[in-house]
Design goal:
This protein is mostly helical. The protein contains 6 helices and 2 strands, in the order ααααββαα. The chain has one domain. A two-stranded antiparallel sheet has the order 1-2.
Length: about 120
Amino acid sequence: MNQTDIWTLGVIVGLALVTVVTRSFFFISSKPWHLPRWAQCGLQYAPIAALSAVVLPEVVMVQGHLVTTWQDARLFSAAAGAAYYFATGGKGQAVLGTIVVGMLVYLPLHIGLGW
């Protein structure tokens, strides 16, 4: 059985303390703290940037290489979902509708045609 040495335990405890202090810094402070205007504007784009960083490679790549054929169900489902989103103007249940339309295109192509 492997035993953990004292240095490893010290590092774990130290990192836990640093994490707790930095995450609770805004709760500990007695003065209200506001983000600068430029940071607030930048944070508006953070969710879409993170989403595109995760979703886009999943759509256009297979095992680390770009898709080389047009017979890929993900390409058509992403296009159909984007078309639905822009056709509805992004209002109401547009996100749910985008997912549903994308899956309605993806499943028959992937399961039925084997793309």
